[in-house]
Every structure is written in structure tokens, then in C-alpha cells.
Amino acid sequence: MGDLLVKLYDLPKAEPLPSGFRIKRPLAPEKRTVVSWVEERFGDRWASETELAFSRHPLTCFVALDDSSNLIGFACYDTSFKGFFGPTGVDESFRGKGIGTVLLIRSLEALRESGYAYAIIGYSGADDYYGKTVGAIPIEGSEPGPYRDWIRRE
Ligand SMILES: CC(C)(COP(=O)(O)OP(=O)(O)OC[C@H]1O[C@@H](n2cnc3c(N)ncnc32)[C@H](O)[C@@H]1OP(=O)(O)O)[C@@H](O)C(=O)NCCC(=O)NCCS
Description:
Layout: E1 4-7, E2 22-24, H1 31-42, H2 44-53, E3 61-65, E4 71-77, E5 84-90, H3 99-113, E6 118-121, H4 127-134, E7 137-138
Parallel strand pairs: 5-6
Antiparallel strand pairs: 1-6, 1-7, 2-3, 3-4, 4-5
Helix pairs in contact: 1-2
Bound molecules: coenzyme A.
The site of coenzyme A has 16 residues, from strand 5, helix 3 and helix 4.
């Protein structure tokens, strides 16, 4: 699980979302809704990173919603480290519809808009997917990378 490098000056255009779905940057009053959703599905560490995304202006997070505005996915950037993409996740029952890739590309575009030329996908675990979608390449020797020396609590 190493880190990947992405060229932000060479991003593909996102495919349209399936009908009824949309992406938005959440509002600060939606923080607890989003963070608790992330915690329930993806755990405490990703929830902590998502909380940090809500401390910024503009928030460094995008969410995917269905046609009833139910939360079905999220993606953060610039959280644990500057210039990093992640964490990201789509509710299991909505995977494989292209939603995760739209969240990914929108987040990478936001990193580009904020001045980065390259982004890093931290602790990937899905190298083939990121290579195929945004041309990400592994950073040699980046395992375990900066995510190490975790605090433990008895
Ligand atoms: C990764 C994730 C956000 C993708 O969301 P999604 O909406 O299903 O993504 P898309 O529909 O745009 O793309 C699906 C593609 O991603 C691939 N993919 C998803 N997770 C993958 C993984 N861990 N390794 C390799 N490929 C993966 C699927 O096989 C599929 O490939 P296909 O298009 O060739 O069939 C989603 O699978 C998820 O929430 N996974 C659990 C959390 C996670 O691993 N987050 C990323 C950590 S770096």
C-alpha cells in the first residue's frame, strides 16, 4: 500500500454522473451528518480526516447525493497532508456506477485550482484503478510512507 503520484495538468474529463445523482461541496452545517456517515461505513480514522476537511474554506471535501439528497459517497483532499487526495468512499450499494471516479476527478481538479501541479494518493490499495482512471503511478519506496507510527490507546 504505497503512495501514487498524479499529474494534475493531464487530468481526464469526468464522465457524466448517472441520472439522478449529483456532486456538491457540502456546507459547514452538514459536517456532523457527513462525518458520522463516514465513521459508520469507513471508521474513525477516515472520519477524523473528514472533520479536518470541514475546518477549511472552501471545505476540502465533495459529497455525492442521490435524487432524494441522501449521502452516498464522499471524497476529501488536502487533509492529513497538503496535496494529498483521500480519504474517499462510496456506499457499497452504489459502487460501480462511476460515482467514485467523478468524486476523484472533481477533487483532483480542486487541488489543481488551488495551485498544485501534482497530487499524491496516499496509501492507495487500488493502484490499478487509479492508474486506469487518472494515470496515477506508484512512488517508489513509499510504503509505508507518511502514514506510520500510529498512536495507540489501550
Ligand atoms: C474506491 C471506490 C471509492 C470507487 O467507487 P465507485 O463509485 O465504485 O467507483 P467507479 O464506479 O467510478 O469505478 C469502479 C471501478 O473501480 C474499481 N475498484 C474499486 N476499488 C478497487 C480496488 N480496491 N482495487 C482495484 N480496483 C478497484 C472497480 O473494480 C471498478 O472497475 P471497473 O470500472 O473496471 O469495473 C469504492 O470502491 C469504495 O468506496 N471502496 C472502499 C473504500 C476505498 O477503498 N477507498 C479508496 C481508498 S484509496
